[in-house]
Amino acid sequence: MALLRSGLQRVANIFGGTQGGILSRFVTSLVPSENKSVAETSKEVIATCNKLIEQNASRNFAIVHILGKQWRVTDGDLLVVEGYWPPNIGDQITLDKVLVAATKDFSLIGRPLVQPGLVTVTATIISKGLSHTRTHFKKKRRKQFMRINFQRAQQTILRINSVEIGNKINEGRNDV
Amino acid sequence: MSAAKRVQQWATFARSWHIFDCKWQDPYESAHVIKKYLMGMHKPIYHPMNDCGDVVVCINSREIALRGDEWRKRAYFHHTGYPGGASWTLAWELHNKDPTMIIKKAVYRAMTGNLQRRHTMQRLFIYPGENVPEDVLQNVTNQIRQIRYVPKRLDHIPEEEVKNYPKVMEYPEDFVVK
Amino acid sequence: MVFLSVINWARCRGPDEFWRKRRVFRLAAHYIGRRRNCYSIAVRNVHRALVYATKARKLKKEDMKSLWDVRITAACEQHNITLFSLREGLDRANIMLDRKSLSDLASWEPKTFEALAAVAKYKLETDRFIDGQDKCHPTGINLNLKDVMLEAWLNEKKK
Predict the structure, then answer these.
(1) Chains touching A, CB cut-off 8 Å, 3+ pairs
(2) B88 strand-pairing partners
(3) Which residue, A37, A98, A123, C74, has fewest beta-carbon neighbours within 10 Å?
(4) Which residues cross the membrane (chain B) (predicted)?
(5) How far apart are CA B109 and CA B29, in angstroms?
(6) Does B149 sit within 8 Å of C74, measured CB to CB?
């Protein structure tokens, strides 16, 4: 199957370029793009993407932003998030800060976030606990200086239940 | 692991062979390029502990070019370990003794000194001329781009072409070319 | 007034010698030779190991950063863009991926990375941004250096 990459219609929209610079790069053999304007090419790309989403052809992954770190997640992943985080064990949460979502055939790149509602990443909190003890030990030679401290960080373990892309790439893009 | 995945794994970590033409290249600059391919730093899967480096074949190492008067100034140090065993060899002397040595030492120095370095060096083949054994050459799949453009020498251009080349002016007859 | 307790504290020399030493020996349990059996040697080595462990937590983060940079550079080279201009282009296009996720994409999702590289390149082109960093690799036939320089020069003159 020909790989079809849309660097996302949004990019083309915002740049407002006159050539099909980005889009035509990714459309390899599915769409002969050279003699088409941007609008048509991007429309076709979006249509193909939507069709692919409907078919649910392959498994999706997304890059989500949790507590200051970015994680590449896919269905069934386990994440260990470190630091204070309010959710409790058993909570079902949706991770909203999705930076990139993609499948085998196309990728949606958010600037900086993919539009809300397009991609839903759901996760369950499995356990909350503390990390192993980290010894913070300082010593200066010949100066009779020695300090020892122990610290443990809070850890939350997440299970990613699903990464789903809603079938509506073409809609509601003004809130980007 | 399914069969297809296994093949993918093999293909990912397979070694590929690169060829590098040292003609008119600065060995110390090109060492950094060669090092990158030897250690596998040109692959996004690079990790110092995974064995993803490639093989590099250097040809024409006799024709390397050193900057300025480095041929005369650069000295290579060696110590036998016995008292008074120090010796300094100038670059041109070393190059006369072994035309592959300068490029080899340059690549060796470009890498960080860890245990892996000697094994990585074994993947580097250097040949003074263009004669590469057939069994080495048949593996080569890629050519590393030279860092510097190799200029064409005037005495290598056919004489007719030089004569027919358009001129701005002729030298006057009493002009002495220095 | 008699400060009995404080005086007692001052005289108190911590836990019994056996337990004090045992704490160190526990940490030296996996060492070899006298390092694990003689207290005076063991305590030196344990202290050194703990100092290293403390410092290494920071070093590990730096190492990972440089490793990610190497990986991203390698992936960038395949698409003929430098690491600097990739990050600059992504920043300007308001795509906020960090090193970790970029290198992750580079090795596991090369097609997505390619799209990102193309976006960065296109964004820089539309911004008329010229990568001042020396590409040092191709001094080639295809690199149309003269045109590029002329454009930069013209832009400067206009200002």
Answers:
(1) C
(2) B77
(3) A37
(4) none
(5) 12
(6) no
Nearest residue in chain C measured CA to CA from B12: C107
Q: Is A4 helix (H, G, I), strand (E, B) or coil?
A: strand
Question: Which chains neighbour C (Cβ–Cβ under 8 Å, 3 or more pairs)?
Answer: A, B
**Residue B176 backbone phi and psi in degrees, to 5:** -100, 120
Six token digits for residue B82: 């016995």
In the structure encoding, which two tokens stand for residue C15, read together? 């836990």
The answer to whether the Cβ–Cβ distance between C107 and B44 falls below 8 Å is yes
Q: B 40-69 residues with CB below 8 A of C?
A: 41-48
Instruction: Tell me the two tokens of residue B173.
Output: 């007859």
Q: Measure C1 CA to nearest chain A CA, in Å.
A: 34
Q: Which chains touch B (3 or more CB pairs under 8 A)?
A: C
- The confidence band for A169, taking pLDDT boundaries of 50, 70 and 90, is low
Which residues make up the CATH 1.10.1900.20 domain(s) of chain C?
Answer: 67-158
CA distances from B149 to B26, B145, C139 (A): 11, 10, 7
Nearest-angstrom CA–CA distance, B37 and C57: 30
Chain B to chain C, count of Cβ pairs less than 8 Å apart?
32
> b vs e for B73-109, b when ≥16 Cβ sit within 10 Å of the residue's Cβ?
ebeeeeeeeeeeeeeebebeebbeeebbbbbbebbbe
Strand spans (E) along A83-133: 92-95, 98-102, 107-109, 119-130
Give the residue extent of every domain in chain B. Answer: 14-164
C112 interaction partners in chain B (CB closer than 8 Å): none
What is the distance between the alpha carbons of residues A56 and B162, in angstroms, rounded to a whole number?
67
pTM for this model (two decimals): 0.80
Closest chain C residue to the Cα of A138, Cα to Cα: C51
Range C67-158 has CATH code 3.20.20.140: no
Q: Give chain C as a 3 state SS string.
A: CCCHHHHHHHHCCCCCHHHHHHHHHHHCCCCCCHHHHCHHHHHHHHHHHHHHHHHHHHHHHHHHHHHHHHHHHHHHHHCCCCHHHHHHHHHHCCCCCCHHHHHHHHHHCHHHHHHHHHHHHHHHHHCCCCCCCCCCCCCCCCCCHHHHHHHHHHHHHHC
Range with lowest mean pLDDT among A31-35, A126-130, B158-162, C151-155: A31-35
The mean pLDDT value for A43-70 works out to 79
| Chain C residue with Cα closest to A61 | C109
Nearest-Cα distance to chain B for C65, in Å, is: 12
Nearest to A27 by CA among C150, B163, B84, C111: C111
Interchain contact C55–A (C-beta under 8 A):
no
Say if CB C149 and CB C157 are below 8 A apart. Answer: no
Are A70 and C97 in contact (CB < 8 Å)?
yes
Prediction ipTM score: 0.84
Assign domain B14-164 to its CATH superfamily. Answer: Ribosomal protein L13 (3.90.1180.10)
Is there a contact between C139 and B44 if contact means CB atoms under 8 Å apart? no
Any idea where the domains of chain A sit in the sequence? 1-57
Pick from A170, A156, A172: which is nearest to A79 by CA? A156
